[in-house]
Amino acid sequence: MTTTKSNEPTHELPTPQQNNRSDNRLPSADVEAEARDGIIDSNDEAEAMEVELEAEAEAELDVEAEIEAEEEMEEGGRAQSPRSTRRIRNRMAAARMRTRQKQHLEDLEQRKTELEQRAAELEEELREAQSRNNPLTQSIENLTSMIDELTSVENTMLTGIDECKSLLLNLERLLRDRNITRNILN
Questions:
Q1: What are phi and psi of 181, to 5 degrees?
Q2: 11-14 contacts at long range (C-beta below 8 A, 24 or more positions apart)
């Protein structure tokens, strides 16, 4: 706090750097993280950084304009009350918050666009994979039906073979019985 000629204390407004203590990330931290994750390429990163820097510059201009307005009021010979100082600080904080919200909304919209584009690419890849898969699926179905037919034929043949064996056994018995009867009669 400083004192004026009338020995009344006045409150100093925080500088833009002091007001941004809660947001001590570098402007490009989110952009760099997304670039590492492969979400955006370097051109998008540069554009995003430019947008962030422009938004920060606008916020600083708003804060500087508020500070200048406060200084003009002080130069007018009037000492500011704590209430008016608080109002100015609140206005500056609200301006910064609006700027951050606007930037955040723009970032979300950009992210949404990127995700929609990626979803469209993935859907196209899925359609391509399905189109490549359809002939294979048809081939599998054809082979399955062939195997079923062959299994049916095999079962029929095995049944026929079993019947032939049974007939042969019956014939052998009949021949034996006939030979035995012939031997008895002779």
A1: -65, -40
A2: 11/80, 11/82, 11/85, 13/66, 13/67, 13/70, 13/85, 13/88, 13/89, 13/92, 14/89
Q: Report the C-alpha gap between 148 and 136 in whole angstroms.
A: 18
Q: Which two tokens stand for residue 166?
A: 């049974």
Q: What is the pLDDT of residues 65-90, one digit of tens each?
A: 666 666 665 555 555 688 888 888 88
Q: Does the reported pTM lie above 0.90? A: no
What element of type H or E holds 9?
strand 9-10
Reply yes or no on whether the pLDDT at 184 is more than 90: no
The H-or-E segment that residue 5 falls in is none
Cβ(11)–Cβ(82) below 8 Å: yes
**Which of 12-16, 77-81, 138-142, 157-161 comes out lowest in average pLDDT?**
12-16
Structure tokens belonging to residue 167:
């007939």
CA angle 94, 98, 99 (to 5 degrees): 120
Rounded to an integer, what distance in angstroms lies between the CA atom of residue 88 and that of residue 70? Answer: 8
Q: What is the DSSP letter of 40?
A: S
